[in-house]
Design brief:
Number of helices of chain A: 10
Oligomer: homodimer
Distance between the termini of chain A: 46 Å
Number of domains of chain A: 1
CATH class of chain A: Alpha Beta
Strand content of chain A: 15-25%
């Protein structure tokens, strides 16, 4: 089924304890699209880049099934740029530079060919732009998921509440969930957030895994214990891409299938962090992904029926 | 099967964001024994208390199947006392007071009736005392597990290495695993620690669950997402008691059974944090424990065979 993806496409410069990059490809929509492309070949991309953004990357996405009619290329302007530095624990990072450039006045265009989209993933952007996308779709999609961040809670709370009321799934990290809900307990926090609109809340905890909440049910997927996390940039977006890509592929969105989607999202994220930027996501094979998913099965599988054996 | 438990029995005074206690019963051996008593009724306790320690608690342990011939009661001395304060995240705590009292020169006595013990849990104590217990057992037990802490790594490294070389299972938290191994990655850290002696390493991550390592296998058990963690004191010891109690009950210690033991340990720990001190552990029913274990099954269970449904 079709998946519409909205988000930034950007340049990142990253420093980790393991090394440092020049400007490399980044941005939420880049990671989400690459990750989702392993599950569905009907992806519709909505984003904006400057004339400096490499055509090779756009061509690569097209070859993976991404329609790019909704990707605005502003020839005389510059792409969004972010640079940051991670510390040893990889859970916190310092932003060194943020240059909005083309993203400053982004007005998302939904081409006619993008109408009748089944699934929508709204990457982190201003809540107003996220809502504009929903409003510009003539037919309500089967499932809309969104990401957001603390910044919008601080500067655009009312807009964020309006957008949240329109979506089915919110995918955020633990710190964001705490700020959004005003609750330290993630269990209480998820309940508060479900009261704002989404029926499903996914709370990502980085190396500590992810929680999926729906009504009174909770599902937990661990992160795969890795020898090293090389670069966590994009891991959350890669999770979202795998999550929504899996749903688009499997055509269901009941709780049981969302649980599987969390596992696939976690598997994709576990690849993302193995190399800098999008590098690892460009070279995966379906067999590697299945093997990684089976590692998750092994990691959490136990047979409690045999307790008295 | 029989389980020998060595550790402190103490008074604690605890402050959390939810409240504050006067002196209440604490100590590693208290939590381990209570927790294990739900699984096996052949427990052999080795510890030391002062004349101030309540007989009612000792009687309670006896009624639960704990033999106390190895519990030294020094009438004219005072029991070990610890007080501490937790912050909102409950992952860090400040120690306000530590009074060793009877623990300062603890020389563990192994009564003849304790010989031929099947399983041994060495709670956190000086590595020298832990090793003395092992040496004073005439027959090698089936499985020896131990806990330790950063303090011993700082002040008694060589002694700790000698003791570690004698045990089968090390149960520690993530921060301790990092210090002991000198590795930030827990995967690499566990491998380094297995090189020091233990065939199995359990790394507890508090609210983020626990990892079990053996050779090249890893198992992960989440912590149950709770509305509130009321008081984390003793959660790690309660985990160890459930873990070893389950093994003693089920009489196996292959990897599959150690995985189940981790789940039972996690279930017991999830009760411990619901009230102050040992309060919740005194009132559990077997039905509650089974129900809690089933919550763990629900929490992590997914069916990936249906991926293309």
């Amino acid at each position: 089924m079709s998946l519409l993806i909205v988000g930034s496409m950007a340049f990142d410069a990253i420093e980790t304890p393991f090394g440092k990059t020049d400007k490399i490809i980044g941005g939420a929509a880049s990671y989400i699209s690459l990750s989702a492309s392993y599950f569905t070949s009907d992806i519709r991309l909505v984003s904006v880049v400057g004339g400096d953004f490499p055509h090779t990357f756009i061509n690569n996405l097209q070859e993976r099934g991404c329609q790019t009619e909704g990707l605005q290329i502003r020839k005389d302007e510059k792409s969004f740029f972010w640079s940051g530095r991670y510390h040893l624990d990889m859970n916190s990072r310092d932003t060194l530079t943020t240059e909005l450039n083309v993203l400053a006045d982004f007005d998302p265009v939904i081409p006619d060919t993008y109408q009748n989209t089944d699934y929508v993933m709204l990457g982190n952007l201003t809540p107003t732009v996220q809502r504009l996308v929903i409003e510009r779709l003539k037919k309500r999609p089967k499932l809309i998921a969104m990401d957001t961040m603390n910044f919008w809670m601080n500067v655009a709370w009312d807009e964020l509440m309006k957008t949240l009321a329109l979506v089915d799934v919110l995918i955020i990290n633990d710190e964001e969930a705490r700020q959004l809900s005003g609750q330290y307990s993630l269990v209480k926090g998820a309940r508060t957030i479900m009261g704002m609109g989404p029926q499903y809340v996914v709370i990502k905890k980085g190396e500590h895994g992810a929680l999926l909440f729906h009504e009174n049910s909770v599902f937990f997927a661990p992160a795969l214990p890795l020898e090293d996390v090389f670069d966590p940039t994009g891991a959350g977006d890669t999770f979202a891409g795998g999550f929504m890509g899996y749903l688009a592929k499997s055509r269901h969105h009941n709780f049981a299938n969302l649980k599987r989607a969390v596992i696939y999202g976690s598997a994709m994220a576990s690849f993302c962090v193995e190399k800098f930027g999008t590098e690892r996501l460009l070279e995966l094979t379906p067999a590697e992904i299945e093997e990684r998913v089976h590692s998750f099965v092994d990691l959490v599988q136990f047979d409690i029926e045999l307790q008295n054996a």
